[in-house]
Structure formats: C-alpha cells, structure tokens
Task: structure prediction
Amino acid sequence: MKAKKGKISVMMGNVVAANVARLCRPEVVACYPITPQSEVAETMSGFVADGSLDAEIVEVEGENSAMNVCLAASVAGARTFTATSSYGLVYMYDAIMQASGYRAPVVMINVNRETPGIHAVSSGQQDMIATRDAGWVQIIVENNQEIADQLIMCYRLAEDYDIQLPVMLNYDGYYLSYLNEEVEIPEQSDVDAFLAPLKNQPQRPRIIPGAATGCGTHGMEMGYVEARYKHWAAMDRAKKKVDEIDQQFADYFGRSYGGQIEEYRMNDAEIAILASGSAAGTAKTVVDTKREEGIKVGLVKQRLFRPFPEERLIAALKGKKAVGVIDRSVGFGWKYGPMCTELKAIAPSIGNVPILSYIDGLANLDITIPHIGRVVDEVNAAAKGNAYQAVTWIPME
Result:
C-alpha cells in the first residue's frame, strides 16, 4: 500500500514544520517564540485557535517552562511538541537533561542559530553542538521537504517501544526557516497510517493519577547506573532504527534520505566531503562540477548527529584516499571542528588517511560554491600526497 499524492505547496521551512507537526496530532504543545523559530510557535498557536489542531497549548513565559511542560505531559502519556533555537535551547538545558533522563519521547524542532558568547542572531550549528551530550537523538536535515518527512519519522522513532527517547530535529536558521520551497505535504490519513503502528506497541508505564510512582535518582546507587546504561543502549539501538524507519517511509511515501547518512556519488569516489544541513545541497552541485573536471569526489551527508553513526560512516569512507569535513560550528578547546573531531576518533577504522577540517558558515556567512570547490581541490591534493593544512577557517583566509 502506498500513500496518496500529497498537496504541493510553496512554504517557508518554519511553516512546513508547523503544518506537519499538526498532522502528527500532538496532544500538548508548549512553545516560546524566538528568532528564527518564531513562526513555528505562532503557527501552531493559530492551529489550536482555529480548531484545526485538537491540542492543549500552553503559552509559557520561557523555553525552560516549555520543555518542563512537554516533559510532564509526555510522562503522563501525551504526545508532545515544542520548538526552539539558540538562546532558547540553552535556557532549557536543565529541562532537556531531565527529559532524556526520564526517557520521555518528546519531539522538538531546533532551528539552528549561533549561541551566547558573542550575541549572534544568525545561522550556525553551535546550539546543537552545545547539547550533543544531553542524551537526545539529534537529526539534521537539508531542505524543506526533508523537514516535513523527517518530522513524521521523528515521532515513529521517539515513541518506538525499543527507543523511548526525546528527538531533536535540526535545520539551519535563516537558510531554511525563511526559505520558501516547493513541498509535498502528506494527507492526514497517510500520516495517521504511518504512525499507527505505535498504537499497537506496548508502552512503558507512565504517571497514572491515583497510582503510586517514584521520580528522581537520589540514593538509587546501582539503580542510577542501570538507568544510564539502558539510556545508552537505547541510543545505540536508535541508529539501526533510524535506517529502518527511513526505509519504511520510502516504501510508503516514496521518499528516502538514507537513514543515518546520505551518500552522493560515493560508489567510485576516491575522495569524500562530509557535510550536513543546507550546505549539503550546495556540496552536491560542487561534486557534480568537479566530477566533470575528472576529480572522483563524493559527498557524505551526516543526518544523524547523535548517536554518532560510526558504523555507517566507516562503511562509506573506508578506502577513500582523503576526507574533508565542513563544520558550521567551533570545537572550543580542540583545534578541529566538532564533526571532524568525532570523525578522527574512528580514523583507524577508515584507514588513517588525511582528514582535513574546514570551519565555515558561521554567523551571517554563507558556505558557497567557491568555498566547497576549494575544499575539494585541497582534499584532492592531500590524497595525492601533497602537504596540507589540518584546519582551515575559510572566512579568515
């Protein structure tokens, strides 16, 4: 059985996120508007007001309250939704740690934006990087259609009985949040059908009014260790589950994104570029151009950031002569970009080839075709044995 053809519309990324969140039928919504996420919260509020979404909406005084509302509602058994960005994600940090510790399957949109330090109302993935060890599954998407499709898959992942973890869907602020693109919005009945298997799974015990329950970890001793271990194990299981859900989505809706990673022209590639988010689309254009010049380059788009897709990356990059990694964030205290640092941790399994780190696209700066073209040329030169620079801040040169 296949899904029906959805309605084709031209929408901003934020409006896409809100429209598809509505189709997933959250029962409790708690959002606080913050640039460049605000339209998500505002549009969801409008859906509740006009009756097109049957949900309890809580108009909170800040992001910390938004996450605590979603946490409480989730452990009580409700499907929840929230969205944030930058300062908002930082402000709810203690609550997102609580949500993951309680294994609450909250689904949250994070519209990537630079974080405090130097005030920057501009794009960048530093907010996501700052929360990478909070225990959430984190997924990064490239375009507005992927926002729509991945959001549906996020609920299948978060609420799966074998996972039961909060999931954060990340997309680039400004580049996608305000970008109008053609998007196919699925029919309500088809989203219902794709999420229906969750109703047939046994669910973990939740808070039940009148029934005894226990919360908190003070004095748990080995119970705390067991809870942490099970959380870690669920994160590890999520990798395979992401691939499975992507395939199920492809079978039903006809669109696939590769699961944990997407490979583009990698079959015969001699060198590879690793990128994420909206920059991956630009990188595909550069790969095509460089192929015409005779350079056998391929692209690996990292979609799953947490848990780290170690096995899939090893399989994709093993045997390549050199790899260039484009980071849209900074790894303070370490000279490489954050994604490059993590890739270097598995370098022996790839083959100890040159791995070049590139930092680009911070604040208001774009990751352009010339920039990525330079990355390809330098990685190709390194693959031939030429001297190379380990870390390059492209805007500074």
Observations:
- The CA atoms of residues 321 and 384 lie 8 Å apart.
